[in-house]
Amino acid sequence: MRRLTMAAVGVWAMAVTAEAQALKPVPLDDAAKMGGLIGDRLTARPAKPRKALVFWRCEGYVHGEAIKYGNKALETAARQTKAFDAAFSCDYRSLTDKKTLMSYDALVLNNTTHLNTKGHPELGPNLLDFVRAGRGLCVIHAGADGFYECPEVAELIGGLFDGHPWHAKGDWAFKLDEPGHPLNRAFGGRGFKAGDEIYQQKTPPYDRAKLRILVSLDFGDAATAAAKGQKRADNDYAVSWVRPYGKGRVFYTSFAHDKRAYLDRARLWHILDGLQYTLGDLKADDRPGGK
Q: Which of 109, 114, 225, 290 lies 20 to 30 angstroms, CA to CA, from 40?
């Protein structure tokens, strides 16, 4: 029988660190709202029992609210839908111990920042091998703000933080590059506006020719187009994408700087569908879309 595990054998889940102690519980009303938005089943029926490791360590900026809401959303989805088991960790050993890492179907980098790949030299090669071998990597928001000293993993993700002209206090416009794509199902085929903090990505590693872009910023909206601090001459500001890598799968989204994404049905389900894609259960065309 599958069950939700807060700590699996061999995983140093919820390690006692200042970070772990700083995460306060999600308020009961918000936890209940997320539970209602998630319901009792996810989009795809699991092909077999699935295990996801949610990693949330930060060496840079700590998105504390987003981390705790993201962890709670994934814990709730696992418990209510039984579509996967979830374990949670902020201890490097759960990534550097390769045998432990390889026991999972997918790894979620939940707002991780500036991970210490030099101090943990196994980390980068393990992540690359994990995905190449047929597993999935689901990267949420600041997970793209973490691999400055490990360009191979930044290339794996497909992006690297280069500022956020679209700050958290604004409402920004988004367009669906592929309205009919399975991972855009939650948006109902329509663009939308939402409050969030959206990253621009460095090139390299960002390269639209290597990715299948799902959502991007809509410059048809005056405020979105006028945001200060934009650096890309091509105005190519992707928000969410997928890509194949070896035998595995990668999903990235810039959404979820704070709790708002997890309390919004569409963005919450976009993330859950992204996770199911990386787990291998939600089938979707991930061939690069080209320029």
A: 109
Which tokens is 47 given? 């092909």
In sequence order, what are the beta bridge partners of 113? 58, 145
Say whether 154 sits in a helix, a strand or coil: helix
Question: Which portions of the chain are predicted below pLDDT 70?
Answer: 1-22, 290-291
Residue 245: which of 205, 198, 187, 202 has the closest Cα?
A: 205
pLDDT tens per residue across span 175-219: 999 999 999 999 999 999 999 999 999 999 999 999 999 999 999
pLDDT tens per residue across span 61-82: 888 899 999 999 999 999 999 9
The 3-state DSSP class for residue 201 equals: strand
Let me know if residue 207 belongs to a domain. yes
Whichever domain contains 156, its CATH number is 3.40.50.880
Tokens of 41: 């089943």
Six-digit token string for 33? 């709202």
Tokens representing residue 228 in the block: 């200060």
Tell me whether residue 40 is in a domain: yes
Buried b (16+ CB within 10 A) or exposed e, 152-176: ebbbbbbbbbbebbbbeebebbbbb
User: Could you tell me if residue 242 is left (phi over 0), alpha (psi between -120 and 50 degrees) or otherwise beta?
Assistant: beta
Judge whether 66 and 258 are in contact, CB under 8 Å. yes
106-110 and 192-195: which strand pairing?
Answer: unpaired
Residue 109, domain extent: 18-279
Tokens 């696992």 locate to 78
Number of domains in the chain: 1
Q: Is residue 52 part of a domain?
A: yes
Encoded tokens for 17: 């660190």
**How many other β-carbons are positioned within 10 Å of the β-carbon of residue 196?**
25
Q: Which of 269, 206, 265 is nearest to 239 (CA)?
A: 206
